[in-house]
Design a protein that fits this description.
This protein has 740 residues and is mainly beta. It has a domain of 77 residues. Helices cover 6% and strands 45% of the residues.
């Protein structure tokens, strides 16, 4: 018997029923052709979407990022920040390649993919056989998410040599106008050069095959938003003459303000994917895979309304390199017993460099034309949160499963180990930031405020820690009669954090929480159950569903904050003129881009008076965990169509929450009076307030056409302990839910 054109999705089971009878007539050959249908697979129970290679090749795409195709699932919402699955945060997804983790677990990538900070891709699109979008897979082998799994199944080589190459060019002639705030504007100069290839074939026929694919891309674009000198001043809220004056003033101090108009931002990407598949003998096969992803990007400054207008000096350049090596061994140990071992090693390196080395400068600008006035901040100099930084992520992932088939019962036993090692060099604001209330103040070098992040130890900017996660699972899939498949499973995950942050006794005394305690060693159980019922001739109707718990992991950046923000390694120093109506430059250091950034105020206040920010974890904190339940009906229709009605409900069991412990009691209503600084301008006199107004209001020149008047008072939070700034406790609550 020969079976041809038999294609199964990863994890899919297919039952073949072939009945043969004896006959005296010799049969030279018996050929059985089987066509599978993943939509009506008896093993399909939860909410899943399969995107085939044909769909990937035929649908148009500009980014060529496989995660963008996840939006073909009706439960996925996609935007520039990534894929939100069933209403969850993008950082709660699990992005995989052949079942192996391939993502930024630290959580800085806006899309979740490794290298996403530099707009990188995971693997070449031509290397993908299919994309699996798993929202509620009631299979306990899947874990590490509360959103969804985006798994790219890669292509393999065969006994025939195949290959292809392609390239394309796209420029602004093929791009429509951008629409910002209801106003259309030209996109500006755009260039996109792209080239790629793939090749596959046999090394040893029937035994050893290869597949390789690569992509190179160069993108060039201008900053987005309304631009000074290009768009009307009323759109950018700034005029070119004022910008030129600011640039001249900065030049007089010895600093380059950068470009305020259009300039070119470059984004270079390179991907290389290789895979070897070996059939060692009739019972054993081996897969080895290597993936390289490189991306370098000039991060765009903000030009959109609603925030400060940023010049090119306030931008940064980031480079990302991701190396991943994975291997999988499949073995048939007997007629009923099989074994699956997978090992994955990923190394991700991100490096960010600021465009300017002098402190950030913010100038409050005013202008107007034709009786219309406007006010907006202009920002230049080093990025406060994006100064030079490094991020290293090393991931080791081992999983294995033993499967035993006992007639209509299929048992799976297994476990796994994951190690996440993080090293980060990052201390934002160490270069400092100046605020000037006007161009005249900038020219006179009389800033109203100076903020700097002061390191208190030699290693204040270095954070190193690791997270180990152990797992074990057991599962049974049973066939009940000819129509019903049932799956029951239990999974246990145990996250362990062997490294502890430093203990800050002052935090313990003031707030009763420890900075050295992290959630570690608590078993998290995830029971799951699913079913699939086939009805009608040829399973033309299918009812499927299930329920269970799914355990994810938090973005490890939040753990890094607990290691770094103990209140012992760094603090923020603010030099500010409080009595804003009286010039008093002696309270704020003068701006000098050629000198080291000041670490003390002119009145002598230094690091000892700086305010530390603290992050702690609640003693009962647990990794994110959601309960999911779904029910669906699939119906075959004429002409190959399938009608599906599906509902899914998600309820948080452990959902991350944040609380500032250093917020004092609300101001009593009897004290919210104009004499105490509580005006009715923004309702401060009638609503609950947790802050006291500042010591004075500053008289400023309002936009042309408006009468002069005072600003509303600046409110300063009432603190439990004035020696600290924010004291953020990370806990979890069970309030979130979603349904679709």
């Amino acid at each position: 018997m020969i079976r041809e054109d038999l294609t199964l999705s990863a994890g899919q089971r297919l039952r073949l029923e072939v009945e043969l009878s004896e006959t005296a007539v010799p049969l030279p050959e018996l050929s059985v052709r089987v066509e599978t249908d993943p939509e009506f697979d008896p093993a399909r129970m939860g909410s899943t979407t399969i995107v085939t290679q044909e769909t990937l090749e035929n649908l148009p795409t500009i980014s060529r990022d496989f995660t963008a195709f996840a939006q073909l699932s009706p439960l996925v919402a996609m935007d520039e920040m990534g894929a939100s699955v069933a209403g969850s945060n993008i950082r709660y997804n699990n992005i995989q390649v052949d079942g192996a983790l391939s993502q930024d677990v630290f959580g800085l990538s806006p899309t979740g993919v490794a290298g996403g900070q530099a707009r990188g891709r995971v693997i070449p699109l031509s290397a993908i056989e299919e994309l699996q979008v798993l929202i509620a897979p009631y299979d306990v082998r899947q874990s590490g998410f509360t959103g969804g799994v985006l798994n790219a199944v890669t292509r393999t080589g065969g006994n025939e040599f195949r290959g292809s190459a392609f390239g394309f060019l796209r420029d602004d002639a093929l791009v429509g106008d951008a629409v910002i705030g209801g106003f259309a504007r030209e996109s500006g100069d755009l260039d996109n050069l792209f080239a790629g290839f793939d090749a596959s074939g046999p090394i040893v026929r029937d035994r050893l095959h290869f597949f390789v694919a690569g992509e190179l891309e160069r993108r060039a674009r201008p900053p987005g938003g309304f631009t000074v000198g290009v768009d009307e001043a009323v759109r950018s809220q700034l005029d070119a003459d004022s910008i030129a004056r600011v640039s001249d003033i900065l030049g007089g101090y010895g600093a380059d303000a950068g470009e305020a108009g259009l300039y070119t931002l470059e984004n270079d990407l390179a991907n290389l994917f290789t895979r070897l598949d070996a059939r060692l003998d009739d019972d054993n096969s081996l897969m080895l895979r290597y993936n390289l992803a490189f991306a370098a990007d000039d991060l765009a400054p903000n030009r959109l309304p609603g925030d400060a207008y940023e010049m090119s000096s306030n931008g940064t350049h980031i480079e990302s390199r991701n190396h991943a090596v994975a291997g999988q061994w499949l073995s048939t140990l007997g007629p009923r017993l099989s074994y699956d071992l997978m090992v994955n090693v990923q190394s991700l390196r991100d490096r960010e460099t600021a465009n300017a080395a002098y402190p950030r400068v913010e100038v409050q600008m005013q202008g107007g034309e034709s009786g219309r006035g406007y006010r907006r901040e202009l920002r230049l100099g080093s990025s406060f949160s994006g100064n030079d930084s490094e991020l290293d992520q090393n991931i080791v992932q081992i999983s294995n499963a033993l499967s035993l088939s006992l007639g209509n019962h299929h048992l799976t036993f297994g476990g796994g180990f994951e190690r996440f090692s993080i090293r980060r060099e990052y201390l934002p604001g160490t270069v400092g930031s100046y605020l000037f209330n006007s161009m005249d103040d900038l020219a006179a070098n009389t800033p109203s405020e100076y903020v700097v992040h002061v390191p208190l130890t030699d290693d204040a900017g270095t954070t190193e820690f690791s997270v180990n996660q152990f797992s074990a699972f057991v599962q049974e899939e049973a066939r009940v009669g000819e129509a019903l498949n049932v799956r029951l499973g239990l999974r246990m995950d145990v996250p362990v954090m062997p490294d502890s942050p430093a203990e800050n006794p002052a935090v313990l005394n003031s707030f009763g929480v420890s900075t050295s305690e992290l959630p570690s060693g608590t078993p998290l159980f995830s029971p799951r159950a699913g079913f699939n019922l086939g009805l009608g001739e040829g399973r033309s109707t299918q009812i499927r569903g299930g329920a269970g718990l799914f355990t994810g992991r938090p973005p490890f950046a939040w753990l890094a904050n607990a290691y770094q923000n103990t209140g012992l390694s760094s603090a923020f120093l603010t030099c500010q003129r409080r009595n804003l109506g009286v010039p008093d430059p002696e309270l704020v250091p003068a701006f000098d881009p050629r000198a080291p950034s000041p670490t003390s105020c002119p009145d002598g206040r230094g690091a000892e008076s700086a305010t530390p920010i603290v992050t702690v974890f609640d003693s009962d904190f647990r990794f994110p965990r959601d309960f999911k339940a779904s029910l669906a009906i699939d119906q075959r229709l004429p002409a190959g169509f399938v009608l599906t009605l599906e509902g899914i409900y998600t309820k948080a069991v452990n959902q991350i929450s944040f609380e500032d412990l250093n917020i004092g009691p609300a101001v009593p209503a009897s004290e919210r009076t104009p004499e105490n600084g509580f005006t009715d301008g923004f309702g401060y006199g009638s609503r609950v307030t947790f802050g006291n107004p500042g010591a004075g209001s500053q008289l400023v020149d309002p936009p042309p056409g408006d009468p002069p008047g005072p600003r509303e008072p600046i409110f300063f939070p009432r603190r439990v302990d004035d020696a600290f700034g924010q004291v953020i406790r990370i806990g979890d609550r069970a309030r979130n839910f979603a349904y679709a």
